[in-house]
Design brief:
The complex is a heterodimer of chains A (113) and B (115).
Chain A (H helix, E strand, L loop, with lengths): L3 E4 L2 E4 L4 E8 L5 E7 L6 E7 L2 E5 L6 E7 L2 E7 L7 E8 L8 E2 L3 E5 L1
Parallel strand pairs in A: 2-11
Antiparallel strand pairs in A: 1-3, 3-8, 4-5, 4-9, 5-6, 7-8, 9-10, 9-11
Chain B lengths: L2 E4 L3 E5 L4 E3 L1 E4 L5 E7 L5 E7 L5 E3 L5 E5 L4 E6 L8 E11 L2 E6 L3 E6 L1
Parallel strand pairs in B: 2-12
Antiparallel strand pairs in B: 1-4, 3-9, 5-6, 5-10, 7-8, 8-9, 10-11, 10-12
Classes of the chains: A mainly beta (113), B mainly beta (115).
């Protein structure tokens, strides 16, 4: 099974809402990633978890809060977002081996109103 | 410093003709190189990867890429384009830096396939 699943597929939220994005993989990967992708741009790395510990935070605003409850799950908690945060949010996973390929989920299309 | 340059933002081909998507990279070490494809509103799918084995790498859906260290290139090719190949393609480098490993995405190339 080389699938990374993400829920929900689409999310519309107001600037005062709190919501969460979920990501799951069952490939035994110990590295998991959150990316943000704006239209016609490559994905931008937000966070990296390695063995359930946050290893990279690319200076992401605190209104985005990641969580890795276990080795298969990755959440992104959202609070007080801005309209410019509207984007496709992609989750990925990989083996914890340098140079390993990443497997991507289908993404959550987020719209902040 | 590591970087990835996709030389064309858009490429347009006719169905049945060859595809060439160009990628150059700069790296201080021996990088791992990847090509990913992204169809509209979808996630990224791995087409192929180079990790210091054979320099000609075969991937899915008839795509292949050749690693040329002397030219620092990793161009993606396919002999005959299909309508379903129309998508965004990203060249990606995974490379060492002083703090560990870093994944760098190219800006992407949009492939159009005309009937």
């Amino acid at each position: 099974d080389t699938e990374v699943t993400q829920t929900p597929k689409h999310l519309v939220m107001g600037m005062t809402n709190k919501k969460s994005l979920k990501c799951e993989q069952h490939m035994g990967h110990r590295a998991m990633y959150w990316y943000k992708q704006k239209a016609k741009k490559p994905p931008e790395l937000m966070f990296v978890y390695s063995y359930e510990k946050l290893s990279i935070n690319e200076s992401v605003p605190s209104r985005f809060s990641p969580e890795c409850p276990n080795s298969s799950l990755l959440n992104l908690h959202l609070h007080a977002l801005q309209p410019e945060d509207s984007a496709l949010y992609l989750c990925a996973s990989s083996q914890e081996i340098p140079g390993s390929e990443q497997y991507f989920g289908p993404g959550t299309r987020l719209t902040v109103t | 410093a590591q970087s990835v340059t996709q030389l064309d933002s858009h490429v347009s081909v006719s169905e049945g003709t060859p595809v060439l998507l160009r990628c150059n990279y700069s790296s201080s070490y021996s990088p791992s190189l990847f090509w990913y494809v992204q169809h509209p509103n979808k996630g990224l799918q791995l087409l192929l990867k180079y990790t210091s084995a054979a320099t000609l790498v075969k991937g899915i859906n008839g795509f292949e890429a050749e690693f040329k260290k002397s030219e620092t290139s990793f161009h993606l090719t396919k002999p005959s384009a299909h309508m379903s190949d129309a998508a965004e393609y990203f060249c990606v480098v995974s490379d060492r830096y002083s703090g560990g490993f870093k994944t760098i995405f190219g800006a992407g190339t949009r492939l159009f396939v005309k009937a």
